[in-house]
Amino acid sequence: MTPTNVITRALLALGRRRERSIATILAIVVCSATLVALLGISESSAAQTARRFEKLQGSSITATINSANAWEYSEQDMLHRLKPATAITSAGTLINDAASQLIVKSPQWHTTVTTSAVIGTPQGVEAIGGKSIAGRLPTDIDADVFTAALGKRVAKELGISMEQRTPTITINGVSVGVTGIVADKSNGASLSASIFLSPRTAKQLGLRPQNRTIICNAASADITAVAAVLPRMLNPSNPQSVTVKAPGNPATLRASLLADAHNTSTIIAAVLAVVTAFGIVNTMQMAVTERRREIGINLALGMPAWKESMQFLCEAIILGGIGASGGMLIGAVIAAVTAAARSWVFLLPSTVLLVAPLGIVTGAIAGIIPAWRAARIDPAMLLRSS
């Protein structure tokens, strides 16, 4: 009997018991489709989560100079030091002093607000996406030392606008002129709910910290390289005094999420493989029982036992292969539809291509016992009992 004859006989045998064969194939399809859909959805979901984290944390690098000479250099000097790093798109000094509790009053409207200070330069405000929506931002070169910009929310609570003539406020009892109103990008609150001060004004008010923080923006692909060179660029004489905090690598986050998803998928795959194997074993065991007379006649007519065994093994492999292949296609479609419905980028790991071979291997393993039973049938005993 040639291999073609074995396959043909196996297909004919499955066709004669098509109801049970179809039920087994459908069970394998469900298992395989579940696995493939899980892998695809996990991959797409992990990539989407990584992108969301990347958007939340942005591409800003925070470098803090922890030394006594942190404020010795002007903003222009600091930015000049960063020029060799062409990957930096914007940079500037900005310190969010959330711990400060400033009592801000409007002498004109007799309103009071308790808020915190943001100390920095216009370049620092630009680096975090903030902007002046009225007037201008104070700088260290202003003729009047005591100037400030109000956050959008603070200005509203105090009843101050730049349409008023020379608006003034008091900060902890010190009279300060208002040069403008500043706001964050989108729905941020760090600038809008604070008082913006230049480093020189903050020093006069006793609010400037010893440490200086520089915000640097760079493309996501360049963040690691830029973070590595910032300490030496900002403080060449003492780079160890510079602390750099860079956003997490999206690729690392995605790999971590995928590792967790793959561990879960491995466990589920093992369970589904066992379920599939039991389904095939059950179907083939019943086939051996139902076809004992047919097997006995074939053996009595001289068919070698191993060829009869090969036919049953081939049937099990066909069931596993068809079911796994069909499930792989259906699972991929389910994952694609899910990704499209949730506006995700559809991703499917290459490991799903192993589902069909895995189904064949599972079918072969599951068919060993039924094939062994078929080969051990004694035709003489079977015919005498009939």
Automatic annotation (TrEMBL):
GO terms for cellular component: plasma membrane. Its main location: membrane. Keywords: Cell membrane, Membrane, Transmembrane, Transmembrane helix. It is found in: Cell membrane. This is ABC transporter permease. The chain crosses the membrane at residues 21-41, 266-284, 316-340, 346-372. It is a multi-pass membrane protein. InterPro entries: ABC3_permease_C, MacB_PCD, Macrolide_Exporter_MacB. GO terms for molecular function: transmembrane transporter activity. The keyword Zinc does not apply. PANTHER family: ABC TRANSPORTER PERMEASE YTRF (PTHR30572:SF4), MEMBRANE COMPONENT OF TRANSPORTER-RELATED (PTHR30572). Residues 21-228 form the MacB-like periplasmic core domain. Belongs to the ABC-4 integral membrane protein family. Coiled coil: none annotated. Residues 267-379 form the ABC3 transporter permease C-terminal domain. Pfam families: FtsX (PF02687), MacB_PCD (PF12704). It comes from the Bacteria.
